């Protein structure tokens, strides 16, 4: 590889950043973890409540939902606090809807009974890939919360049907690269977030051309990297839940 | 094909709904059209303003942005008016961000000079695929608005670099099908929105498993249908702009 | 009449603009129409719901209410979207309260039973007189919705006690003129909105001196024109409902 | 008159409530008064600021605007505080727009220069007719504020072109009656607010049928009463400003 | 005392402003008063409602809460109306929480039964010490409201356990002074609000160094003045309730 | 001490919880620390910006302000996210105003030049005393941010005039106790927050009787404990800044 095509982080195209998942960090939450992907750091908590939103009442099913936030100085330049602005940005809402959908895709909601789990994903430090880290960490928090319910005999089995994790990939000078950091994300030609299951299925793809449209060939290259990257994330999740 | 696998609309898996694009319907707008995809009907207007948002001031570039709305009774059941609720839903914001990104992907913003075009996409009747129809129609409105600027000698050439259109595809009982209507969208195993360019490039893919994860093979099947579907949309756009 | 006193539109002082009411345009609504008064174009839908607001619960009466909106580019210059601003303007609220009151004035709410009809009046193109067009069109949508309920055997008779329609009049260089368009409305000395019934009664008068106060004599001149103008509107309503 | 047609207050049909206007009650305001119409009590202040809203900048004209509020316990039953609810009701906005229009109708805005006067009308006790009392009192506060500016040599003459006052009338069992209190307003068949000038001109009429439509004949009866009632209000204003 | 240490108002360090409490001024309220502390003037009303907030339902206890507002022109310079801004400031919320806590400290909430009293404190004229005047006046309004309930046989005894009143003190050139007006408050080195009971107890102290930190010795000097000042306020309250 | 008077935490009346201040935890902030007081854990960041709010422009002075937030699951029961609710509670605003005032009391704002430092205090885990921990930690973050500016030669000396720290005290069964945790705070008869300087001065006292009023004698007991507690906090601050 010549200097010219070296990606900004200097990592190999298929190199994931160091992943660290520290479970049980939030004293009050039923399940929690702090996940780091390189410098990106997200606190994920799972809160269990014995009731469901109105549209599910009386159906015997549970609900899994998510909220996402970023501390004002998680970023290089301080961002305005959404609570002070009086509303969540479109980006925030888009991300928290994605996290919720991703987790529901691997949850047997009938097995939950009428219970809601809210996943709060708060970014302490942002360096790219926060929504992906949030999904990967939220799965750990959710798993631990379900285990907590089993220990309390509220649930007889864990309603999770499998693992789910997410990673971003992008095109750097025409080459697919794995797990973009902030500098790479800003400079990539295209970036894509993949939410994949432990069983190899696709839960969600969000691929966006930043500068110019990309090809199906590139799309397949990004997906191949994502599969490789999530394999490492699934292992980190397993380790975090002590499996 | 047996009755069992027949999709709800009865259309062939690769059949697009009837597309109708009526240009110039909004008397005051610099560019406009009404687009129908089957029963779905969206009014798209392009409004030109001779200034740019703060973050672009003095850079000699233009901006293209979008807003999306749905009339309260565009749907089967009346939806609450967002202006009365006092905020736009996460879904609305997600869609209008997508429309804006999609159009910017085929616009040479330097060629615009310091000018903003706002695309308003208002759904008059909803029957699935409203965001895709909005993108396809917004391109026509934008093209006409740029032509209007050329006629007024505000622009010397059309800053559009090519066409962009969008279509949704989904998995129905394991079979990829093109252009979901509302009933199909509600019942599909997975649905995906593809934003593609006239030159065959991918601008955006948003693919979501509704029930269970899907495979790469399925993904490729959906993409193939999308290419076929957008080919017809590009032709309809050409006809609408009188090219 | 000399050139000097010719009103901006060139119409005779007592000439109404061309009125067109197209019923049944909204596929999902129980009743609907598109009304045009010259270039002004308003989409009116009536949505029926089998319950009433809290203050009427258990009283065996129905409720008729209205919401009003304007598409951002219904006007010469794009207006900010109220949903994006996060609130409805005072003007919007004033108009929707007027529409609701006007329709309730000709409705036997006891005959409705506990049912709410919401009239959504959305301006597609604005060229003056939008609130009046909204009232005239809303009556058609409401009538059709009640007929729909009768066909469904939810109602045994139509709760409408008669027709209601509205028209604006104004003083142009001291002369009362009928049905102001936007240019005329901006230049008039006074303008007044009249909501009248088919039986010749007054439901509402809102008369405002724009420049200088006007006299009782002028007021009577405006009212005489309004009676003449609404006579034509009542005929158009009759035709639209197929009576 | 038989007992049967006696209006709820027992007053003669053409009897105004006792009017009291106490000028100069607000220590900090450039002009102010407390106006009582029977039990209704409104505090009106005029605040002068040496600049105009954006749409008037550089035009050498002034602006007069109004805000209206009601103390939570001005009414029989405590009303929710609008500041706590986070928005002004449609009724509040409608009223404050009316007050502003009414005062501007008798103000020579060119004579003001680039200056804004904001009239705050806050209802301390409500017993019907608060918007009319607010207009009548606001004129006094505005007059005093302009005199204050003349004393300070900011203005060389008073920009008020004449007096303006308002009164409500209504139909009680078919008989026009003057100056409705709360109980009468609730029971009237129709009620109308008239804003009239000292010179006998009409500034604004807002007439509404509460129960059933009314006739032109009734309208004229209400207007005649309003002229009689405002004559007394003009005298009370003159006395309050020490003319 | 030399000229140099004379406080801005010219009052002796331990001199309270003239206190006037006029009970029963709000016609509709169950209890009310207008309190003046020098130029500061606050209208306090107590509104009784036969239910409690959700968190108290079924507990057999009552609730006392407060809201605070300032008329836009209560101040030297007109302040923006909070209802128009769409939110209450942090200062407003802080003050109304303080008023509520202070009154609850002397109320036997069990003796109230399930009843809520809302104290509305609206500042008509502000010249320093508005929150203290509000507390002192609110106690009178509350007392009168409870007496009203006893007269109506809704309560068998008055749930007030004693009196509560508040006064501000401050450091002026190192000397503790009582009851700051606006000019003094702006110039003081420190100011403190004391909420004390008739029995000599402390309900709340809020002491803030404006310029530089102050000492324990100063703190005790301020508290001594506050005791002296509230003694006069307790007498004024007694007189107002006709005790 | 008998069992009966033992405080809930079992600590001696004058025992502070373990204090840990970890500086420099936020990668992007100019100054930061994580402070723990027992289980309470607050992340404090200081963000420097080279401009001041409007009211200070052109005065050559700086500004120090604060924002406070709590992660939804910092508490036993999940609290609703303020960004999702669309507004900050009165409690939040009260606390952030207190933090800002406290830091400004020890800052020479003229020495800052036209610069703003925003202190963000976000509670990761709450167990009582979060506002006090926030103040104590914010001082460390502010100190580090000023040192950062000195290293960058933006400031020639540190504008901090001394240390400031805060601690809560309360009355437990009549006995003053230091540094309440959540369980103690809920059960205390009175609680008080003291903001004191390293030089022994009082910056702010907020003392509130929860159940019944307390005496001056108790007040002095609480203040004595606060002086003792802050002495330990000042030492911890010194250690954190490496002094």
Instruction: Tell me, rounded to a whole number, the average pLDDT of chain A.
Output: 94
Order of helices and strands of chain A: EEEEHHHEHEEHEEH
Structural class of chain A: alpha+beta
Number of helical elements of chain A: 6
Multimeric organization: homohexamer
Strand percentage of chain A: 25-35%
For the largest beta-sheet of chain A, the strand count, sense and barrel status come to: 5 strands, mixed
| Rg value of chain A | 18 Å
What strand line-up does the widest sheet of chain A have? 1-2-3-5-4
| Largest Cβ-defined interface | A-B, 34 and 34 residues
How would you sum up the global shape of chain A? globular
Low-confidence parts of chain A lasting 5 or more residues at pLDDT below 50?
Answer: none
What share of the residues of chain A lie within helices?
A: 25-40%
Question: What do these coordinates show?
Answer:
With 243 residues, the first copy, chain A, is an alpha+beta fold. Helices cover 31% and strands 28% of the residues of chain A. Chain A contains six helices and nine strands. Chain A has helices at 82-85, 90-104, 109-112, 130-151, 182-187, 216-240; strands at 19-23, 31-37, 40-49, 63-70, 116-125, 164-172, 175-178, 190-197, 202-209. A five-stranded mixed sheet of chain A has the order 1-2-3-5-4. In chain A, β2 and β3 (40-49) form a beta hairpin. In chain A, α2 packs across α4 and α4 (130-151) runs parallel beside α6 (216-240). The termini of chain A are far apart. Chains in contact: A-B, A-F, B-C, C-D, D-E, E-F. β9 (202-209) of chain E pairs antiparallel with β9 (202-209) of chain F.
């Amino acid at each position: 590889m010549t200097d010219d095509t070296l990606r900004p982080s200097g990592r190999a195209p298929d190199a994931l950043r160091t992943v660290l998942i520290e479970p049980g960090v939030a004293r009050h939450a039923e399940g929690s973890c702090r996940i780091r992907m390189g410098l990106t750091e997200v606190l994920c908590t799972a809160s269990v409540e014995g009731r469901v939103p109105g549209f599910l009442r009386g159906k015997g099913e549970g609900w899994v939902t998510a909220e996402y936030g970023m501390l004002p100085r998680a970023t290089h330049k301080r961002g305005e606090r959404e609570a002070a602005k009086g509303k969540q940005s479109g980006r925030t809402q888009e991300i928290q809807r994605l996290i919720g959908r991703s987790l529901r895709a691997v949850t047997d909601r009938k097995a939950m009974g009428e219970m809601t789990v809210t996943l709060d994903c708060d970014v302490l430090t942002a360096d790219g890939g926060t929504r992906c880290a949030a999904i990967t960490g939220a799965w750990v928090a959710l798993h631990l919360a379900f285990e907590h319910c089993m220990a309390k005999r509220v649930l007889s089995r864990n309603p999770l049907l499998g693992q789910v994790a997410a990673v971003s990939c992008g095109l750097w000078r025409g080459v697919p690269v794995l797990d973009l950091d902030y500098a790479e994300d800003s400079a990539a030609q295209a970036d894509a977030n993949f939410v994949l299951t432990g069983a190899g299925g696709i839960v969600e793809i969000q691929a966006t051309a930043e500068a110019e449209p990309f090809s199906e060939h590139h799309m397949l290259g990004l997906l191949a990297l994502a599969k490789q990257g999530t394999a490492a994330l699934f292992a980190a999740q397993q380790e975090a839940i002590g499996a």
